[in-house]
Specification:
mainly alpha, two-stranded parallel ribbon, elongated
Length: 47
């Protein structure tokens, strides 16, 4: 299960206390165009 819409650190803390291991939301990062994501992934793969 993935928790969605996490925007505040307190939300993430509560989820972690509940055993949630996967989450997504603005706290982790804002939406970006596909081209930007592709570039980031390519840089990471090159390491």
């Amino acid at each position: 299960m993935v928790a969605e819409g996490i925007e505040e650190p307190s939300q993430m803390t509560t989820l972690e206390e509940m055993g949630c291991e996967m989450a997504q939301g603005f706290l982790m990062g804002k939406p970006r165009p596909a081209e930007v994501i592709e570039s980031l992934l390519a840089l990471r793969a090159a390491r």
